[in-house]
Amino acid sequence: MSDTTTIVQRRPAPVVVCRYDVLGDKSWRPTKSPRRRGGTVVRHGLPAAGGPTSLDAEQESSMSAITSRRSARALIAATSIMLLATACTTAKEPPTRKDGALGSLPTESGKPKDGGTISVALPVGLSPSTMFPIPSSTDIPLGNQLLVRNLYAEADIGTTDQVNADLSLAELPEFGADGKTVSITLKDGNSWSDGAPVVADDLIFTIDLIKAAVALSPVNYASYTPGGFPDNVVSATAKDEHTVELKLTEPINPGYFLHTVAISLKPLPSSAWNIAAKDGPHLDPTVPANAKKIYSFLAAQGRELTDFTTNPLWKTVNGPFRLTEWDSSTGGYTLEPNPEYTGSDTSRVDAVQFRSFTSTQAMLNQLLAGELTVGTLDASFVTQADALEKKGYHVYGRPGPAAVNPLVINFANETNNFDKVIAQLYVRQALQHLVDQPGYIKSRGVYNGAATPNYSTAQAGSRYAPTFGDEPPYPYDPEAAKKLLTDHGWKVVPDGRTTCVSPGTGPSDCGAGIPEGQDLSFNLLYANSPAANVNRDLAFISEARKLGITITGEAKALNFLYKNVDNNGSPAYKDKWAMVDEGAFTMGAYPAASFFLGSKAFFNLGSYDDPKADALFEASVHSTDPEALVAETTYLGENLPWLFMPNVDNIAVWSDKISGPAESFANLTAYGLVGANPQAWYFTS
């Protein structure tokens, strides 16, 4: 039996509905007692999908004990009923939206006092898997910038700054006239916890290790794109103790370099970590063979989950905190202030405890009980904002900057000729026409108003927005979707089986490689949390069924998706998924998509390969034309490498017992709990 729950879409029994039923049929009427259909489900009745009924570890385990695939077929109706029932009966209007945000952002207030433990929720389903700060495409590093600081810190929400200068280790890069020389100057005065200064050799050490990682396997560096960094680095030289000069193979766009390359780099302790064995000799990492040995050793050590707190390697940090407790069974951990920290904003608290949760409902329960200091609120629970505020919490939300919340398409999946079918632009256009973004946003069963429409890799109104602005090229229009299919040789059978009746490559035929009788059926994997994404995916599945398109939905843990749904990192799984919903991707302040969609990019999960898109990626990365990126975002919105969904608000919740700079809380809406900056927070007296 698989360790996942397979949900096969059927026309469901009537369910309790609010404004919009997540299963897509707006004509249904509420019933007093929801019904199950055809078969029985396990006693707990819900997958770990983050709906209004929480799941503990025992419940999650029981979901894998469904005795047969047949019994799972009824799960979708029962699940959807339970997801909606509580939301409808307790629903209130969501908070007022003003200036693009939900709720208001309080100013820093209260008299700071030292001490106390802040409890912070970890993102649901996202447990750390390594201590090594150079992550592979399947790694989830612990601590982010809190243990080992980034070269540059992201700018605060609401500012026009390029980076957060106070939290950055270096001055902004300087570019030579040829565009191929970049100088990075590390600030003086920053030290590692062992007393060694953070110097140019530490940044060069990082670059040497990344080169070694990529040489061993391209999937070893999550940010890798062939021909990009570090392939384009001819040399990295220490001009003095604090300045690194990079010579590149070709010019690079300054915005792209800063926001896609440099901002993800972390100088590493070259004098402490340049070893290839425990208690081994210190090696020269500028020798490629040595760098490979060092990288392999550090990467392997980083994945030893039981050694996170005991391995002396990970005690050398330069961030505001150090790791003191770690639970390898849950992924929870505790950080305490680093007494040797030399940066700004030294923490006033005794500890920050990061707690793991199996569902967004479980997190909400702990917030309502007052047992959590900082958390997030899933959009499907936004009507609980008033209750949380009465419990003494601040609630504030807005879409993350340059966020994209797509259904990723697997163009390489050959199952049932999916690769041939999805290669047809008209098919992708038809599917996008079935995505009811306005309906999802308004629905109390999905986003409850806590989202904004989005139809490309840059948001409307932003600096690099597509030329079509907020007028989507393929708005929600089922009739337009049906016409696209019938005009291209398909016999559409609503609630049945739509098939190709005109094979061939003519303008009114189905397209190359699509045989007569081919149906439109494939699977969609989605993370079992947050609930809003689960519900919108179920709505999309139901809408497709109305046109005879059968989509099999499969709920999986987010960690499972990260490890398996990547054609570069997990090629053996390539034919086991057609679409996936892993949640939002953050494109960065310069939202060039080459990292995600370039034909040779190793974070190109679904093997999208389009020569015109590659040419546009090349221009946005290397051209100084300020409109190059606009051309890219416009084309991607029209060509549909992904199916675009609304950008959901990231809603932060924090106790009024703590305070700090307003931007430190606003920043939670940019990257969620992963980007938490707790050293700026303190309890008030």
Automatic annotation (TrEMBL):
<dbReference type="GO" id="GO:0015833">
    <property type="term" value="P:peptide transport"/>
</dbReference>
<dbReference type="GO" id="GO:0043190">
    <property type="term" value="C:ATP-binding cassette (ABC) transporter complex"/>
</dbReference>
<protein>
    <submittedName>
        <fullName>Oligopeptide ABC transporter, periplasmic oligopeptide-binding protein OppA</fullName>
    </submittedName>
</protein>
<dbReference type="InterPro" id="IPR030678">
    <property type="entry name" value="Peptide/Ni-bd"/>
</dbReference>
<dbReference type="InterPro" id="IPR000914">
    <property type="entry name" value="SBP_5_dom"/>
</dbReference>
<feature type="region of interest" description="Disordered">
    <location>
        <begin position="29"/>
        <end position="59"/>
    </location>
</feature>
<feature type="region of interest" description="Disordered">
    <location>
        <begin position="92"/>
        <end position="116"/>
    </location>
</feature>
<dbReference type="InterPro" id="IPR039424">
    <property type="entry name" value="SBP_5"/>
</dbReference>
<dbReference type="GO" id="GO:1904680">
    <property type="term" value="F:peptide transmembrane transporter activity"/>
</dbReference>
<keyword id="KW-0732">Signal</keyword>
<feature type="domain" description="Solute-binding protein family 5">
    <location>
        <begin position="169"/>
        <end position="569"/>
    </location>
</feature>
<dbReference type="GO" id="GO:0030313">
    <property type="term" value="C:cell envelope"/>
</dbReference>
<comment type="similarity">
    <text>Belongs to the bacterial solute-binding protein 5 family.</text>
</comment>
<keyword id="KW-0813">Transport</keyword>
<dbReference type="GO" id="GO:0042597">
    <property type="term" value="C:periplasmic space"/>
</dbReference>
<dbReference type="Pfam" id="PF00496">
    <property type="entry name" value="SBP_bac_5"/>
</dbReference>
